[in-house]
Amino acid sequence: MKLFSKSLFKRISLLFAGCALIFVACQLSGTETENHSISFNKIYDSLAQYDSVVIALKDTAGHTIDIVFKGKVEKPSDVENLPAPHWDGGKVLVSITGFNNRVMVYKVETGFDGATNKKDSVYVFVYPGSSITSLLRELVLIEGDSITLPTITVSPATLTDKSLSWTSSNPECLVVGSTFLKAVKPGSAQLTIRLVSDTSKVMTIQVTIVVNGRIPESLALSADTLFVATGGAPGKLLVTVIPATAATAVTWRIEDSSIASVAGDGTVRGLKKGDTKLWAISKEKATILVFAIVDVSDPAPVATVRFLKDSTDLFIRGVAEVLQVEVLPKRANPEVEFTVSDPLKVGLVNGSITGLVEGDASVYVSSKENPLIKDTLRVHVLPSQIVDSVRLSALAFKLFTGGESQVLTAKVMPLIASPKIKWISSLPGVASVDGSGKVSPVSAGTVRIYAVSVADSLKKDSAEVTVKVVSRPTL
Q1: Which letter does DSSP use for residue 77 in this model?
Q2: From 421's CA, which of 98, 167, 442, 474 has a CA 20 to 30 Å away?
Q3: What is the DSSP annotation of 178-243?
Q4: pLDDT > 70: what percent of the chain?
């Protein structure tokens, strides 16, 4: 075997010096494809004088491959340790794969010294090492939930085998399926993900399983005792769920239905004097319940009846207005009767009034128990207005039980039309809306919120509101 000449040492030193520089060139040149080639263009002319040349190259993960040339490279068999070479027009083109299925790319070009005054040059392209990444570092699941496996990014995109293995540190709490995760019971587990083709590439996600968020831990009522009178105004207690993110739906039950009755929405009416228990029971779990005492007294005489406002404006073809009155004391009989001074100007149907003809009129309310106790509402009927459209600030959004409310705004066109809006919730038990457009979540479900022009009841817009009870993952 001959000794290496200075020219050979020069080539080898250029090779190693070029590795770092050309690795950067690889990043910029976009050579990341699954099968790459080594091109030896007349390299046999420069290597013919040597019995063998060994070039040691390293990939970014530190793996080493030796490319060995012996004698002249004139045919594929002259290149050793390079799998599956093939011949192409005087060039040796070889695709190299391996080292955990990463593809490594090398291109060696050799010039000539002497008459041409060219210098040897070596370019080495090293394919980047594989990796797995995810933005998800922590995951919170609800007991009983199943979700698809989180998205993991495998790099490079051209990697032949991108399969992953998934394991749970606590299978009693977190079960890993072929395509899903199952939260079995409250607790915590570490989810470990490995790249099958290179098990040194690993990442973890911390998983916490919480108690089913829909089931309340407890219920509370707004008062320990509800006072109503026989035949008097109904009463109602408010239910608070703990935690606030739990489902709010309850079933109401009265212990002695001869003393008081309770409706599905919790409205209680006194039937005869006496005491009884009123129960609120979670629809999610019947053992979660709370009770209050219903105290039914003898009827109280009506003292006053009054409208909640002194006057109101109506538009011809406008929205009907529901008459609102207060009867005191609260234990008194709440039944009242309405009449109008001019039925040609103001229509009255089932406690609601509409504008028919421009002008002024009055609406009267009196107690059914004592007609001498009454009040008057002044009504001003305005001409009809041309309203082109009503547009809401949002057409769909989500709320969470126990979470914040969202305020909708409505724009009435043209701008000279009355901007007054009547807000309506299709399901107040899911989400309520007040007179200013503030939408508040009540319980899980989907509801539609309507904004209706007071001046023209045919012009309106609506938004779909989805109320959810969920636990959201953290990133």
Answers
A1: G
A2: 442
A3: SSEEEE-SSEEEEEEEEETTEEEEEEEEEEEEE--TTS-SEEEES-SEEEEEBTS--B---EEEES
A4: 70
pLDDT tens-digit map of 153-179: 988 776 667 889 999 999 999 999 999
> Token digits for 171?
């299978």
Taking alpha carbons only, the member of 406, 401, 461 closest to residue 429 is 401
64 sits in which H/E element: strand 64-70
State the DSSP H helix or E strand holding residue 43, giving kind and residue range, or none if neither. helix 43-47
Question: Position 122: which residue type?
Answer: V
Query: pLDDT (tens digit, 9 = 90+) per residue, 376-423?
Result: 999 999 998 889 999 999 999 999 877 889 999 999 999 888 999 999
Neighbours of 428 (CB within 10 A): 13
* Lowest mean pLDDT segment, chosen from 213-227, 300-314, 416-430: 213-227
* Residue 475 to residue 469: CA distance in whole angstroms: 19
Give 347's strand partners.
354
Nearest one of 26, 45, 22, 28 to 36, comparing CA atoms = 26
Which pair of tokens denotes residue 97?
A: 């794969």
DSSP3 helix / strand / coil % (the chain, rounded to 5): 5, 45, 45
Q: Which helix (H) or strand (E) holds 423?
A: strand 421-425
pLDDT value at position 470? 55
Least confident span in 141-150, 208-217, 428-437: 208-217
Beta strands in 271-407 (DSSP E): 274-282, 289-297, 304-307, 311-315, 321-322, 325-328, 336-340, 346-349, 352-355, 359-367, 374-382, 389-392, 396-400, 406-407
Backbone angles phi, psi at 15, to 5 degrees: -60, -50
DSSP 287: T
Is 384:455 a contact under the CB 8 Å cutoff? yes
- In the numeric block, the tokens 């050309």 are attached to 22
DSSP summary character for residue 76: G
Q: Which domains does the chain have, with CATH numbers?
A: 6-103 (no CATH), 131-210 (2.60.40.1080), 218-297 (2.60.40.1080), 304-382 (2.60.40.1080), 389-468 (2.60.40.1080)
Query: Between β-strands 359-367 and 396-400, what pairing exists: parallel, antiparallel or unpaired?
Result: unpaired
pTM beyond 0.70: no
Coil, strand or helix at 404: coil
Question: Is the Cβ–Cβ distance between 56 and 64 less than 8 Å?
Answer: yes
